[in-house]
Amino acid sequence: MNAPLRVLVLWFPDWPLRAALGGPPPHPPTALVQANTVVACTASAREHGVRSGQRRRVAQGHLSSLQVLPHDAARDERAFLPVLQLIEKHAPGVAQLRPGLAVLRARGISRYHGGEAAAADALAAVLTEAGLPEVRIGVADGPFTAEIAARGPRPRTVVPAGLSKDFLAPYPVQVLRDEQIPDLLIRLGVRTLGEFTALPAIEVRDRFGERGARLHALAAGADSQPLVPRPPDPELVRSVEFETPLAGADQVAFAVRQTADGVLVALGEASLVCTEVRIDLTDDNGLVFSRTWLHPTCFDASDLVDRIRWQLEALAAQNAKDPVDEARAFGGISAVRIVPVAVDDAAHHQPGLFGSGTDERLHHAVSRVQTMLGHEGVVTAALSGGRWLADRQVLTPWGERPVAPRDPTRPWPGSLPDPLPAEVFRPPRPIGVDAADGSTISVDERGALSAAPARINGSVVQGWAGPWPIHEHRWTAGGGKKGHRLQIVDDRNRAWLVFCTGERWWAEGRYR
């Protein structure tokens, strides 16, 4: 597991109540209810026995004068957005864990203020001046430990680096907030995180699976949860509507150029750049076609226009393949909406003092080629899992996030060990593997060759190894891909990886 980050967590107690009632605590006895269940309550209500998770009737039985209000999650989000914006002005890179709980990397702000404790005091002073005196701050290795520290008895708590395990040890296992495993641990007599971490990690994994192993690492302070940037401001969204629907991709791309410039201007005014964008295309039938696009660095106006054109070309190609499917067909485009999905601080993407580096020049060159060839004209390779060579690589268009359909870290029995062939044939090429008498070699059900390989593709065989069987999905009715592999070296010192299916031989790859 990756080394945990030093993070700073800001917790605003009873935030849903503050969003509903307005103003800082103390608040009158109030409970927020959803589906007749208390989801949040004020400190004054808790003094009379009201608790989250109680049924509404039980809570009112503890306090007849309890004020009951419906819970509105969207209201919590809206009320917390100005707080995130305020924090962002003093500490860029803040992320929302949930309304009332924010996290940011501690390194930058602590170096600016001369230490983590000083940074926490500075942020607390800013928030107190803004009318948020109830804020509690925790600094630790990872968001989980920092949140526990923020919920502690002191307004500001700094857990020294590397001491998260000792800090968490006395806390009950319920702080892991899992629906099943804490209850099982309590029934087994394990009540604190310290007792949990004392159990061998291998035995925890065997007993509780991957989820238990994750919680065991979390209890030991090995928190590697990534920080996700906060949602972009809705004011960054731009859209354009056309009085007459436009049918051509180039027409739409030309018409939205000013809208794309507007998105970049709005981002620039907020000192932000966009790294992920969603484009919504509405046709004259009212159907909306949406797609999310990623960028290796950050979007400019030309990149946005290119994505819109590529999205239209993909829709036109899809419509041409299945023109009968009216549900998927689209007419002219009547509206385009550009929605920044992920943003980053513009300072992280500024060129160096003496110009851009090699990576930046490479990006611009590849992007120009992609603009000329189309979205799938430039692809990058990523490692995937699988038994066949063609399955172990995934080609992704430049700028997109590679998604491996099969986990490369899992064991793949029957897969080829390193070193792998330098050249992989997609699809496999037919090839001849013959015996000394010129007959084609076959492989029987037991995996035995009918004769020793003598010639491959007309060349003399110098050496060979195998065969090794591969039979995927043997339990299914039709079975899966199956065959027998051989490694063969010919008299031209070329090493081949070939396999036999039925009576035919195929070249899967070649060593160089």
UniProtKB/TrEMBL annotation:
Keyword Membrane: no
Stored InterPro entries: DNA/RNA_pol_sf, Rev_trsase/Diguanyl_cyclase, SulA_CellDiv_inhibitor, UmuC
SUPFAM superfamilies named in the record: DNA/RNA polymerases (SSF56672)
Record domain UmuC: where: 29-150
Keyword tags: DNA damage
Cross-referenced CDD domains: PolY_like
Positions of region (Disordered): 399-420
Stretches with biased composition (Pro residues): 410-420
The keyword Chaperone belongs to this UniProt entry's keyword annotation: no
Domain of life (superkingdom): Bacteria
Any matching Pfam family: IMS
PANTHER family, per database record: BLR3025 PROTEIN, BLR3025 PROTEIN-RELATED
Family per similarity comment: Belongs to the DNA polymerase type-Y family.
Function: Poorly processive, error-prone DNA polymerase involved in untargeted mutagenesis. Copies undamaged DNA at stalled replication forks, which arise in vivo from mismatched or misaligned primer ends. These misaligned primers can be extended by PolIV. Exhibits no 3'-5' exonuclease (proofreading) activity. May be involved in translesional synthesis, in conjunction with the beta clamp from PolIII.
Name of the protein: DNA polymerase Y family protein
